[in-house]
Amino acid sequence: MKKILLLFVSFLFFSVSAQKKGKDYSNILKSKNIYEINAFLRDAHPDDPRRSVLKPRVMEMMTQYIKDAHPADQKVKDMQEMLALLKRRPSTKISFDEMNAIIKQKQIAKYKAELAAKQSTVVYTPSTAQNTFVVNTAANAAVPNAEAEEFNMLMTVNPVEHKNRTVKILNALFNNDPNATETTVLIRNNSDCNIIVRMEGVGTTKYRLAVPAHDESSIVIEKGQYLFTSLVCGAQYASQKTIQKAIMVALGSAAAQ
After folding, report:
1. 3-state secondary structure 15-57
2. Which of 20, 139, 182, 242 is deepest in the core (most CB within 10 A)?
3. 161/140 Cα distance (integer angstroms)
4. At what angle are helices 75-88 and 51-68 packed, to 10 degrees?
5. Which parts of the sequence belong to the DUF6759 domain (predicted)?
6. How does pLDDT run across 145-197, given as a tens digit for each residue?
């Protein structure tokens, strides 16, 4: 009997702990925060009655935000995308495959525009201050960035090479053949520092991609197992990944919303 009672108490303890770790939506009906309500709609059970009240409310709030926003407000585009999703579905929650498809279409549009303009839409200008030093958050001090020269070299691409690279990325994005040996990797750098992402595969298969701060870059690689490593503002990043289709990897902290 004591064992059963102990088991019940332990189960109750873990249940309460799990609830505390989860998001608290007990006062969500009083919320006037777009992102909080949006998060609730993504997390809540499909039959939760609060949805019928909060979904139209947040859509009205988004519409008003877009109407009153400054023309240069970067959040307007996000609001428009979320509003479009809410008009078609219960929440803005999308699957991993849907997210990849959206990213893929944006990349296709970007690189097609670059080819049409016959040049890169981004003109890179080396910044001595940013490329020479990065912030080491652990030591709370500026340290020499040994990758600065390598980063500048990788970013310096002649027009012919850039065009060939763009065509290769577009061909890979349009290729839906599951037997294709190559695919694309998009790296999004949300940090304040320029970075180099290194991808080490089997044997001598290695790639490196320079990604400016608060920007993104793509690369075509052979499908397979890779160790991704990078130095992000002094912090070491490492992750083992199996690449069998186009993916997006975000590094650094995204801007708080």
Report:
1. HHHHHHHCCCCCCHHHCCCHHHHHHHHHHCCCCCCCHHHHHHH
2. 182
3. 39
4. 150
5. 160-253
6. 668 888 888 888 788 888 888 888 888 888 878 889 999 999 999 998 999 99
- pTM above 0.85? no
Distance CA 153, CA 177 (A): 34
Domain ranges of the chain: 18-93, 97-251
Give backbone dihedrals phi and psi of 6, rounded to 5 degrees, phi first: -65, -40
Residue tagged 């909060």 (tokens): 54
> Do 192 and 233 contact (CB within 8 A), yes or no?
yes
Beta bridge partners of 219: 185
Helix locations, the chain, DSSP H: 2-21, 34-43, 51-68, 75-88, 96-117, 128-132, 148-155, 159-174
- Structural contact between residues 235 and 137, judged by C-beta atoms closer than 8 angstroms: yes
